[in-house]
Amino acid sequence: MPELAYLNGDIRPIKETYVPIEDRGYQFGDAVYEFIASYNGKLFCLKEHLDRLQKSMEGLSFPKLDKEFIESAVHDLFKKAGMQRAGIYIQISRGVAPRDHAWEKDIKLQIIMTIKKVNELDPEIRKKGIDIITVQDERWSNCDIKTVQILFNSMAKQKAKDQGAFDAIFVSKDGIVREGTSSNFFLVKDGNIITHPLTKNILPGITRMVIMDLARNIGIKIQEKFISKTELFSAQEAFLTGTITEILGIKTIDGVPLGKGKPGEITQKLYRALREKAE
Ligand code: PDD
Q: Does an H or E element contain 152, and which?
């Protein structure tokens, strides 16, 4: 089935779809986004993603967009593409207008989506765990809003790759571990899981929320509290969570092995529980 794009109601092959050069998303990063995955022809946590999309739009003072409208547009695209394991990218920009930092009140939202097959992560990587590096967080102070301004995330991910690592996690100036470049971060200590509380410094991840529910159901205690960089190295396990990442165990941080140097039992248990729920 073809990879398709949606542009303000029009659905065509991605290669035939163009966005005007004066889209404010393109010129100012004035846009929000979501990334949703499907398993076996079923969209996972669609409602939760669309709720967050709405919150991001409110965060940038975008006009209100009817939730049923965007939901039916997503279903329409998903049905047309007929993919079982798809990734849908949604981007809503404030609109298209002659370049000016401020905007006119009557500017119209521009809605784009793409649908592509999900490239599953190599199972070997999942089995062995990943190496990550820490990077000082120099992003803006509204990381709870899912805007397309993710250049710093992209640079940190590239830095990790250039150093032979898989990903990076952001650490604040005062040594608090926040999240990954496109994922949330968890530690396992004394059988409990610990993650950063929901503040403006991290994205309220949908997978984070699902994992916390799954953990509660299997009797694992959760603590939402600040983790210092020095605490990292006394953890038994650590993992990243995200829509594509799912749950990915960490084996080293800045070259230092963690726990047994491979994804631990709790990480694996939660991964199996997530797949079961999603499939
Ligand atoms: N990113 N933190 C950041 C900075 C993210 O970009 C993401 C997701 C997450 C995890 O959120 P969720 O569990 O809702 O996917 C946390 C998406 C996948 C992306 O940028 O493509």
A: helix 151-162
Measured at the CA of 119, the angle between CA 193 and CA 34, to 5 degrees, comes to: 65
Report whether 24 contacts 36 (CB < 8 A). no
Residue with the nearest Cα to atom 21 of ligand 1?
A: 35
For residue 42, pLDDT beyond 90: yes
202 Cα nearest atom in ligand 1: 2
Give the whole-number percent of the chain exceeding pLDDT 90: 97
**pLDDT of 1 over the 80 cut:** no
Ligand 1 within 6 A of CB of 245:
no
Cα gap 192→117, rounded to integer Å: 35
DSSP H or E stretch at residue 116: strand 110-117
Active-site option among 127, 146, 200, 221: 146
Cα–Cα distance, 253 to 28 (Å, whole number): 34
Residue 255, pLDDT above cutoff 80? yes
**Nearest atom (ligand 1) to Cα of 181:** 4
Say if residue 84's pLDDT is above 70. yes
Task: List all residues 6 or more positions away from 227 whose beta carbon is below 8 Å from its beta carbon.
Answer: 176, 177, 185, 187, 194, 195, 196
152-208: pLDDT as tens digits: 999 999 999 999 999 999 999 999 999 999 999 999 999 999 999 999 999 999 999
Distance between CA atoms of residues 13 and 212, nearest Å: 38
Q: Cα of 206 to ligand 1 centre, how many Å?
A: 8
The answer to whether the predicted template modeling score (pTM) of the entire model surpasses 0.90 is yes
Specify whether the CB–CB gap between 240 and 247 falls below 8 A. yes
